[in-house]
Queue: 4 jobs
Job 1
Amino acid sequence: MTEITVMFETLLREIEIIKTYLAKAPEEPDSFDKVWIDGQDVMLSLHISKRTLQSLRDTGLLPYSRIQGKFYYKKPDIENLLVKNYRSTPFNLKTMAHTEQEILMNTNYGLDIYAHILREFYPDETVINLKGRETRPSKNPFTGDSLTLVFEEISNQFFYKDLVKTDFQGNPFQFAEMHFKKSGNDLLEIIVQSLNLRIGKIRNKFPLFLKPEAKPKIQLFPVSIPRFSLFHAPVTNTIPSKELTLKGVYELILANSVIQTEHLRQISDKKLARKYKAANFNYVTFSGTFSSRKDDALLKHSGYLAIDFDHILDLESLKAQLLNDNFFETQMLFKSPSGDGLKWIISIDITQNTHQDWFMAIKNYLEQTYQLKVDSAGIDVSRACFLPNDPQIFINSKHLMP
């Protein structure tokens, strides 16, 4: 028994010696593979696209190192990104990430969230002026109203940044968090309530901030007839010659030269075709009347929006879809001068949303509903629309009534 006790005590002392040695031993430095991974591994690990990874870099959400054109990322930084965006409680029986995506899809990629917040600070001003995928500078209520706040659409989400305070940047939810002083599920819930979104409820695919137009009421007083400016060729002429109604445009398209239109469609060189069109085709501004063709020379908005569809394989099928659209009543529809596209003229309520808001929402709606790409130049209120000859032009019959 004594021998066993001695052996056991000896074993314990040896174990303590080993533990002491290990405690004092210098730590082996982490190898490259334990700390750094390349972009391909990040995309595979997070199940994201190359463009999404780029947006994480561009917005400063994910630090990186670049060597000879190749990007490397620290594993701890990726873990921190995941932890920062971790949400433990579901919202409306869905994960927060899924709900955030729904909110983005129902707020014009988050742009409506920014607009809603900015309108609370500047109720009598145009708070966002969109130009393509970016905006012109807006006032920043978080930096003393400086005109330095811009928004840019990256991977189907508008990110904000300040042109002077470079560390002031992020996504719509981070912007909303600064305003509402809430986070997590509470933040998402107040966004849904404040913007009157229908998350988790039965809804259609139409952008929710633009409601379907109600059936027109019988008017017992004269109604203002929308008018447009007509400009004679070439396109470099920016002074209008006269004003037209939609009926006037209809009659002009029917009477336009067949030979001129067919000659344009026979030009195979795209550059030469554009040059010929610009030099020979008259054009109108469907969104209103102008003193000259530029956005800030608008005299009166017509309440109409022209949507361009280019390079369409089946024009007749698309015509039928647009004429039977559930949300927009077609006012006019005709073939583009090139012959492989359509010009779709619809009415919008300019008192409810800006021209730019309408365009972006309708553009997103068409892309989701019909998988169609829309010419982004239509966002400009002074957008020129060239007039060809089209004997099959459609016009809403109410415009032909005496």
Job 2
Amino acid sequence: MKKILLLLIISFDFISNGQGQNLIINPSAESNPLTSGWTSVATGTSCFTGSNWRIQGNQNEYPAAQNGLYFFYSGCGASDGEIYQDIDVSANVTQIDAGSQTFTFCGYTQSFSQTPPDLARMIVEYRDGSSAVLEFYDTGETQNRGVWFKYTDARTAPVGTRFIRIRLISVANNGNSVDAYFDNLSLTTLNLGNDTTLCQGESITLDATTPNATYLWENDSTHPTLNVTQQGIYWVEATTICGVSTDTIHVTFNPISTLNLGND
């Protein structure tokens, strides 16, 4: 009498998306902020070819943009300005509510060189589903006269975070034009996904792709992706001008099942 063992082996390749892209829409005011990504709280009048919370740099004594051609500028009228953008992060709810999701904010401000200077302020608010502020980062009222200065903040999102609000506030101190500028904003997060269990013969590609980043995995690989075919704990560091983002994932494999059809 003979026994027949049937091995079922199915090979799949899964991809884990690291979500390293910039989550901010129109982060350098290259298009009209008020029709592309941003909501106005207070906007000045149009002046010096600037309007709708942006102006082209390197003209009329305005500085060159830190990135691209334009930067954020609230306009004239000698009154404070503010715009904001809400970024939905509910897709990351599992990691956020496990207390393991980190976000990195980066942005530049500059003020025209005058005394007293107008002031630029950036606030990053972590809000729950009812819009209550759970935690925030605040640059304070900055006065970087004649030079772009970078501000960064990396933190674990508070449990319950469902969206992040980016606020740009210009404070008028001198003259009609409110010369507090903002540019090259970014909000990124690195997410290799939930801990994963696969079957023998399957594999998963971990993707940490982040714009303008360098990478370091636990096996010293420096590529943006890593193909995993063995059980283990895998981590990655993605380094940009805004800092270092890290994430870890535990991958396990179930053994191959055997099917016994019985005796002949």
Job 3
Amino acid sequence: MTRVHYYNGDHVESHYSFLHSSKPRHFISAIICSIPLILIDCFGPEQDIPIDPVEHPYYTISGQVIYALDNSVVPFSSVSVVMEILIQGDWVDQRLSTADNNGYFQIDSLYRGQYRIEATREGVSKFSKSIVMMQYSDREYDIIIPAPPNLVFDGNITRCSDAVNLSEVQLSLRPTEIENGGVLGVQTEITNSIGNFQFRNLYAGAYRFIAIKGYYTGISQAVYIPDNGETYFELDFCMNGSSSP
């Protein structure tokens, strides 16, 4: 009994071939004679096995850079994309482009994946946002550079045990995801003598609020500043601990 493997175009199949012979030499001769047939069946022209697989296709992202404040085009902006997550193909290095005098840009040779797209122009706010190229097609994407930030985040820091205001608490506000693609660095402030604080010129989005003071237990909390037409957002915090060791 001999097990024979062959490729039928979709997958490999196995069959058992029974060779009967009353004499050992006839059995051996039958096996030897069947080898060419097996080789033809396995490696013959009918199996149609691709030698060089088709490469993953490239795609293009293109669009226009526009300034949200007055809906004007932003010519000669520097546009870049950096791959964050690969979906299909190979990892892509940073791709760069410069918009023309009408604000149009195009970046080629991109595989399917998630990218961080950024745009900068001297004298205009920056733009940075994650986008996904999921479809098997090119993508059109207009970059809307946001107007200067104008939201205010206001609050108060107290001691949790007796609600006594804490002065000179070191505060920081770290952006984690700005909704409109605006770019902000880490904002820092210090509470005043009655524990009040205020962060100005913020975009709507998610932030990490951190407060530290001496021997008090620090605060590290996610906060969300909405874009609901209001330019003022208030939130109070309290800190545990004592001012002495």
Job 4
Amino acid sequence: MSAPSVSYRRHRFPRELIAHTVWLYFRFPLSFRSVEEMLLGRGLIVSCETIRRWSLRFGAAYARSLRRKTAKPGDVWHLDEARIVVGGQPHWLWRAVDQDGYVLDERRGFPGCAEPGARMIVAHTGLPCAPDDVG
């Protein structure tokens, strides 16, 4: 969360608070009011309009730095499989996760197609041949 080279002069709040607030807004799917409530929980009173202004002024640099750090699929990955029943009909959900916990792909299907689900994920993501383990 290093601060980009922008000027924080003439702002009432410290640069660390501004940087943390803008980072929260761009890093997580939060609204301005959600960030405002999170800061209020820490005893900091900042309006959602102030957060919006900070996001407009300082947000572009943070968004660029976050986009540059997108996860690359790792060498080791595994396939999570879950069976749920919706309206009396069973459905299967698959999720490919690498060793760092990043979700590589998600698929869903119907009973009896667990193997095709794994093959679809491998074909779609271009991952190495087979998962480390199926669980």
